[in-house]
Amino acid sequence: MQEEFKFNVYGKFISIRAGGSRWQAFFLGDEGKRRLADFVIPDFIEPEELATFLGDLFHEMATPQNSEVVRII
Fold first, then answer.
1. Enclosing domain of residue 23
2. What is the reported pTM?
């Protein structure tokens, strides 16, 4: 079974799946819909580093109302 991590990244919901030695990223939408993300997570990123990586990657999206990257699952 693949391990999955879900994050609220400055108001955008992203799911990251561990698939073997690779990461797969998806943007989450309404009603359980998901689409393949258009960014790559390097294989050397560890699970505990995902939130920091996503924060660094998407920091331009931060607003006063959405200023954090939070793991939700």
1. 3-71
2. 0.89
